[in-house]
Each structure stands twice: as structure tokens, then as C-alpha cells.
């Protein structure tokens, strides 16, 4: 044990001394290794960051896996009785113990801004919707159950809306006027980031509050109340069974005039494909090539310097270095060198990937919590560096153990 | 206590397109702890070959060779390396310091192959050893910045840093002027005495040979005693050269 540790440390010390002496030559060949490791690490890291970004974006749209959506229409074009439907919905949620579910009511509403009135899209949702779609707010908080009891409805507005009203401090309880035959006042309790391509104001409201606004206005100040659709967040393993059960139950309750559709709408239901895969493969392949070229440079240097070092190896042997130790030390020279290059490469990759410019490019302003630098990418980079060092060190190490001590120290 | 015992040791090397060359044809030798042995001999007589055998760098072709009463032929390769590292210290004519490494790093080298305290405290031990040979102020000097005498002192410190029981010096003063050579030998003798090691010195210089307690001459592949090395000049190769009777194969370096 003791011998193993001192052999290991000793080899490391010898390797380091050797590298120090040939630092210029070693440095040059290591540039290639560092660049390659940086490229590999960056590509892998960007891939997983991009994937995370894609997932987050998909989840914001389609919900987290598995999300079921239920749409109901009637063959005669009327909406099912909303009170009966609400009772049915609550029964179903209780029966299958679905903890996260939300109604969705789409409508629009004329809102008074300082520079005139404008139509604003309203999404009526239940409080669970925030969790189901991973909604993160720039300011304020998502709806809670208590928001249902407010006299003036709470609204969460998007950043476009917020900018347009002059970004008031939410602690001052800013309000906005919803125009109608009878104007209503809503309190702004939160702000969320509008998508990059979205430049229209929009808001979330609790579904009940949307319904309380009343029916469509004749002056078209308010959109016609579509029947709500429904969303459930369920364990992926149960998704298919629940889908079938829900369809059967609701269809049974509403009769044959109703058309009940329940389907999975989260991204995982389609495919987990990584859109960046082709790019990753190309860059990864080139990086691997550069890595091998760097290794070749190392082998070359090691072999050239080895000629001059045969005497040195002989001297070391005469002071007690075993053949195994010489092999290991020469091997370590490459490995220590490429690990150093690997660490540099990985650090560069971290700097590149976590750079705000790059994050902005990948996230397109859509990724709220950027995943930290993926550890597996860093590990992969270091493993590549070590492997290439061991590969490059093998040949010189084999030559080094074949050195005949008595010939080496002869003069 | 007998450290080395050689009996009828031969060493034959195979040549590529010539009959095998017998360098040593029957060497008998005993070296005990604390011995001071000097070996003289013509150039090409096989002195270095013998020293390589004594230092476990090479194996005899035939004959008995015991190290610590154990036949060396039975040692595994790595065991020989470890025994050599622990018990043998080499000093070479050309110093053979590791270029680009400081004096301290050079002296630390043998300790890199040690274990335990000797390994972990190598820096301190090496610095003490350098101090011992009077180079405590040149720890960070590179070999090419040191004089020949200083380099050989570094080499002595390196050979002795693991307190070997056997010190093998192959013409340790060969690259030094007379005065420096004498000073280096005095130092070597001192530190060897302090550590109780046996010292086997190969030399051309009868005055250096005279500092030993046993004097041997290698001739015709075997060792024979010399009673007074200073008087025994008849066969001194250096003098042969001066008289113009040197063998044609004598290297130029020898004549210089
Ligand atoms: N591996 C080998 N292959 C061929 N010949 C060898 C080998 N080793 C030694 N010799 C020859 O054996 C003879 C003795 O060599 P060795 O180096 O032992 O002599 P030496 O006494 O140390 O000489 P010097 O005083 O010049 O150092 C020389 O002629 C040398 O050329
Ligand atoms: Mg010799």
C-alpha cells in the first residue's frame, strides 16, 4: 500500500519535472488537445443545455409529461351546461385523485392603456396551471387559492403589458381597467416573460374570474366565452389508462350528442429527439479528430525527447527505478500533460457555455432557469483527455522500458 | 559482515558477427561492510563491466555471486532494482547528473524510489545531504552552472542520500583536475566512513587507489591483489600511454 502510494506520487513528481523541462514543446502540442477537449465538452454541454431549453419551452406550451387535454364539443354546436360540466369535472378529478388539473378558458378583453384601449388575450386557468406549465414570474407570485376570494380579480400580465403600463412597482397594487358595459378593475399581482416573438399584451386570470366577467359584449369589448377545455397532469405510466377512463366517463355522462376528446399533449408523447444531434455529431467528430492529431503530436515529442533521455532513464534505473516504474512515469508524462490540457479545455468550455451571449442564443429568452453546466460534459472532457494521454504515452513508455541500463550509462 | 561474495564469476557478451567476447573470465571477490577497495586496470580490461555486476545492473554469465548471502541470479528483476536502490549508490566519471534538474532535485532522485519517511521527507533529507558535501548554498543550481568538482559533489550526495551499504565509484575523479579529485575523494571517504558503507573505487590514479585499504588489479579477466599501488606503476595505463606503449584501442580521452 505504502509502496503503491509513493510509487504513484513519485511517478507524478518525475512526470511533472520532465514536463517542466520541455514545457515549450509540450505546450505547443497541448494546445491542440486543449482545443479539442474544449470543443467536445462544449458540444456535449450545449447539447444538453439546448435540450433542457427545448424541454422547458415545450413544457410551457404542452405541459409536463404526461399532460392530458380534454376538449368537448356538441354536435348541435351548443356548449354543455356549464354547472353540470363543472360538477362532472370535479367528480372525475376526485375519482382518479388527480392533484394537478386546470380548466382553460380563452377569451379576449379590451383593456384601457394610457395610450388608448387594446384587445388583450386572456387565459383563464386554475391555480395548478402554474406548476403544470412551469410558469415563472419576473415579479410577483402565481395565483393561490386565496385569489379566488378577491373582489377585484387578480391578473398576471406579460412583460409587454407591463412595459406598456410603465412597469409600476407591484407593492403599490397597480390596477388595470377592463372595459365593458360595466367597467371592471383588476389588480396586477404578477408579471411573466413574454415569448420572444410575442409583442402583444396578454394576461392570465383565474377561470372563475373570467366567467364572472360575464358573457360576450355586444360592442365586442369582450370575446365570446368559449367552453373551457381541461388539462390534467398525471404520471406518465398511468396516462393511457386515465385517458381511456376519462373519455369513457365523460362521454357516458354527456350522452351521444357530445364529442369528447382526450389526448396527450406533452412533448414526451411525440418524441424526445434532440434537434441539435446532427450538429453535435459533426462538431464532436471534428473535435475527436483534432484530439487524435494532438495525441500524435505528443507521441512525436515523447519519442524525440526519449532519444535524449535514454541516458537519463539509465541513471534512474541505476538509482533503483524498476522497469514498471519507468513505464508508468513516462506514461504519466503524457497523461499529466493531457489532463492539464483537459482541465484548461473544460474551463474554457464552461466559460463559453455559461456566457450570457451563448445562453441568450440557445435560450432565445425563453429559458428561465438555465441548467448549470452539465457535469457529465465536464467528466467526458476529462476522460477524453486522460484516454488520449494514456494512448499517446503508451508507445514511448514501451520504448523506455526496453532501455538497457548498462548501455544507457556507458560513456 | 560480507556484503558481496563473488567466486569464479565470468561475463561473456555475444557480439553480432564475431565470436563471443569473454570480458571477465573468473573473478573472486569479497566485500564486507566498511571495506575500502580500489580496482585498477587497463582501459578495456572490464572494470566497468565488473562494477555493473557488483551494482546488480548486470548478471554474471557463470559463477557464484551472493548479495547479502543470497544468489543474485535468483532475484526477480524488480527485486534487483529495489535492492539496488536501497543498498547501492553509484558515482560515475561523467557525474551523470540529470540535466535541467536542480542540484536538490538530482539528490532527491534516489529517494523518489524509496518508501515511507525517506520518500515523503525527500526534500529535507536531500538538502541535508547537500549541506553535508558543502553545497548547502547551491540547492537550486542547475548542473551546467556548477564546476566539475561541484557536480561530482552533487553526485556523491546523490549516491549517499539513501545511506547505501555499498558505494560503487567508477573513476570518480577521472574528469577532475588532480587537486579537485583529491578533495572529492577525501569527501567521499569521509561520508562513506560516517555511514559505514563499503566503498569500491575504480581509478587510474595510484594516489587515489592508495587511499583504499585493499588494492586490486583487474587483468586478463581476473582480479589479483596489488600491494602498493603507488609503487605499482609498471602497469598503470596512464603511464603506458605516456611511454607510447598504450594499446591501439585506447580512447583519446585516456591520453588527454
Ligand atoms: N555489451 C557489450 N557488448 C560488446 N562489448 C562489450 C560490451 N560491454 C563491454 N564490452 C567490451 O568489453 C571490454 C571491457 O569493457 P569495460 O567498459 O568493462 O572496460 P573498462 O575496464 O571499464 O575500460 P575503461 O577503463 O576504458 O572504462 C571493452 O573492450 C568493451 O568494448
Ligand atoms: Mg570503464
UniProtKB/TrEMBL annotation, chain A:
UniProt cross-references to InterPro entries, sorted A to Z: ABC3_permease_C, MacB_PCD, Macrolide_Exporter_MacB
Domain (MacB-like periplasmic core) ranges: 27-211
Region described as Disordered: spans on this chain: 57-79
ABC3 transporter permease C-terminal domain location: 286-401
Residues annotated as transmembrane: 26-50, 281-306, 326-353, 377-401
Main location (coarse class): membrane
Composition skew (Polar residues), residue ranges: 68-77
Cellular localisation: Cell membrane
Membrane-topology descriptor: Multi-pass membrane protein
Alphabetically ordered keywords of this record: Cell membrane, Membrane, Transmembrane, Transmembrane helix
Pfam families: FtsX (PF02687), MacB_PCD (PF12704)
Annotated PANTHER family: ABC TRANSPORTER PERMEASE YTRF (PTHR30572:SF4), MEMBRANE COMPONENT OF TRANSPORTER-RELATED (PTHR30572)
Protein family: Belongs to the ABC-4 integral membrane protein family.
Name of this chain's protein: ABC transporter permease
Source organism of the structure: Cryobacterium algoricola
UniProtKB/TrEMBL annotation, chain B:
Pfam family, one: ABC_tran
Coiled-coil region: none
Domain ABC transporter, chain residue ranges per copy: 4-246
Domain of life of the source: Bacteria
Xref: PROSITE patterns: ABC_TRANSPORTER_1 (PS00211), ABC_TRANSPORTER_2 (PS50893)
Keyword ATP-binding: yes
Keywords linked to the UniProt accession: ATP-binding, Nucleotide-binding, Transport
UniProt cross-references to Gene3D superfamilies, sorted A to Z: P-loop containing nucleotide triphosphate hydrolases (3.40.50.300)
Stored InterPro entries: AAA+_ATPase (IPR003593), ABC_transporter-like_ATP-bd (IPR003439), ABC_transporter-like_CS (IPR017871), ABC_transpr_LolD-like (IPR015854), MacB-like_ATP-bd (IPR017911), P-loop_NTPase (IPR027417)
A molecular function GO annotation: ATP binding
Protein name: ABC transporter ATP-binding protein
Species whose genome carries this gene: Cryobacterium algoricola
Amino acid at each position: 500500500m505504502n509502496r503503491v502510494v509513493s510509487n504513484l506520487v513519485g511517478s507524478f513528481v518525475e512526470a511533472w519535472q520532465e514536463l517542466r523541462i520541455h514545457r515549450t514543446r509540450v505546450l505547443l502540442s497541448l494546445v491542440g488537445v486543449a482545443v479539442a477537449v474544449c470543443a467536445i465538452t462544449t458540444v456535449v454541454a450545449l447539447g444538453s443545455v439546448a435540450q433542457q431549453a427545448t424541454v422547458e419551452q415545450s413544457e410551457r406550451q404542452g405541459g409536463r409529461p404526461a399532460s392530458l387535454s380534454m376538449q368537448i364539443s356538441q354536435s348541435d354546436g351548443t356548449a354543455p351546461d356549464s354547472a353540470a360540466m363543472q360538477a362532472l369535472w370535479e367528480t372525475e378529478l376526485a375519482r382518479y385523485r388527480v392533484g394537478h388539473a386546470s380548466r382553460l378558458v380563452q377569451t379576449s378583453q379590451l383593456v384601457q392603456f394610457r395610450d388608448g384601449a387594446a384587445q388583450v388575450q386572456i387565459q383563464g386557468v386554475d391555480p395548478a396551471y402554474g406548476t403544470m406549465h412551469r410558469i415563472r414570474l419576473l415579479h410577483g407570485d402565481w395565483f393561490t387559492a386565496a385569489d379566488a376570494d378577491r373582489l377585484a380579480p387578480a391578473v398576471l400580465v406579460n412583460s409587454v403589458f407591463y412595459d406598456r403600463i410603465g412597469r409600476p412597482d407591484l407593492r403599490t397594487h397597480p390596477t388595470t381597467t377592463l372595459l365593458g358595459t360595466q367597467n371592471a378593475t383588476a389588480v396586477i399581482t404578477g408579471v411573466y416573460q413574454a415569448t420572444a416573438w410575442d409583442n402583444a399584451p396578454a394576461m392570465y386570470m383565474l377561470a372563475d374570474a373570467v366567467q364572472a366577467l360575464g358573457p360576450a359584449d355586444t360592442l365586442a369589448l369582450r370575446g365570446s366565452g368559449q367552453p373551457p377545455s381541461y388539462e390534467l397532469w398525471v404520471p406518465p405510466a398511468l396516462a393511457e389508462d386515465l385517458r381511456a377512463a376519462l373519455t369513457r366517463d365523460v362521454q357516458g355522462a354527456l350522452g351521444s350528442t357530445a364529442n369528447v376528446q382526450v389526448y396527450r399533449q406533452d412533448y414526451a408523447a411525440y418524441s424526445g429527439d434532440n434537434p441539435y444531434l446532427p450538429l453535435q455529431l459533426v462538431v464532436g467528430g471534428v473535435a475527436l479528430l483534432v484530439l487524435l492529431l494532438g495525441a500524435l503530436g505528443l507521441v512525436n515529442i515523447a519519442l524525440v525527447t526519449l532519444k535524449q533521455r535514454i541516458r537519463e532513464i539509465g541513471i534512474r534505473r541505476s538509482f533503483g527505478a524498476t522497469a514498471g516504474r519507468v513505464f508508468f512515469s513516462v506514461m504519466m508524462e503524457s497523461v499529466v500533460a493531457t489532463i492539464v490540457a483537459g482541465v484548461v479545455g473544460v474551463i474554457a468550455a464552461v466559460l463559453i457555455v455559461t456566457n450570457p451571449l451563448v445562453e441568450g442564443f440557445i435560450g432565445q429568452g425563453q429559458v428561465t432557469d438555465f441548467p448549470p453546466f452539465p457535469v457529465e460534459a465536464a467528466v467526458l472532457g476529462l476522460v477524453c483527455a486522460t484516454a488520449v494521454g494514456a494512448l499517446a504515452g503508451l508507445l514511448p513508455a514501451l520504448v523506455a522500458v526496453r532501455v538497457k541500463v548498462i548501455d544507457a550509462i556507458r560513456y | 559482515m560480507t556484503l558481496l561474495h563473488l567466486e569464479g564469476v565470468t561475463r561473456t557478451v555475444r557480439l553480432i558477427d564475431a565470436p563471443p567476447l569473454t570480458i571477465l573470465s573468473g573473478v573472486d571477490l569479497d566485500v564486507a561492510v566498511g571495506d575500502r577497495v580500489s580496482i585498477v586496470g587497463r582501459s578495456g580490461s572490464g572494470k566497468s563491466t565488473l562494477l555493473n555486476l557488483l551494482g546488480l545492473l548486470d548478471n554474471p554469465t557463470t559463477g557464484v555471486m551472493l548479495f547479502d548471502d543470497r544468489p543474485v541470479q535468483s532475484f526477480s528483476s524488480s527485486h534487483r532494482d529495489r535492492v539496488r536502490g536501497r543498498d547501492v549508490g553509484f558515482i560515475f566519471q561523467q557525474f551523470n547528473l540529470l540535466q535541467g534538474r536542480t542540484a536538490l532535485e538530482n539528490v532527491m532522485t534516489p529517494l523518489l524510489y524509496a518508501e515511507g519517511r525517506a520518500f515523503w521527507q525527500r526534500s529535507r533529507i536531500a538538502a541535508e545531504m547537500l549541506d553535508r558535501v558543502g553545497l548547502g548554498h547551491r540547492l537550486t543550481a542547475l548542473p551546467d552552472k556548477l564546476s566539475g568538482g561541484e557536480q561530482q559533489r552533487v553526485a556523491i550526495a546523490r549516491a549517499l542520500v539513501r545511506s547505501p551499504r555499498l558505494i560503487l565509484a567508477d573513476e570518480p575523479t577521472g574528469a577532475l583536475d588532480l587537486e579537485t579529485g583529491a578533495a572529492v575523494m577525501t569527501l567521499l571517504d569521509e561520508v562513506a566512513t560516517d555511514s559505514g558503507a563499503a566503498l569500491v573505487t575504480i581509478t587510474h590514479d595510484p594516489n587515489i587507489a592508495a587511499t583504499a585499504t585493499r588494492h586490486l588489479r583487474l587483468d586478463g579477466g581476473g582480479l589479483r591483489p596489488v600491494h602498493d599501488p603507488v609503487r605499482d606503476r609498471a602497469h598503470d595505463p596512464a603511464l603506458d600511454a605516456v611511454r607510447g606503449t598504450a594499446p591501439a584501442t585506447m580512447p583519446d580521452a585516456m591520453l588527454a
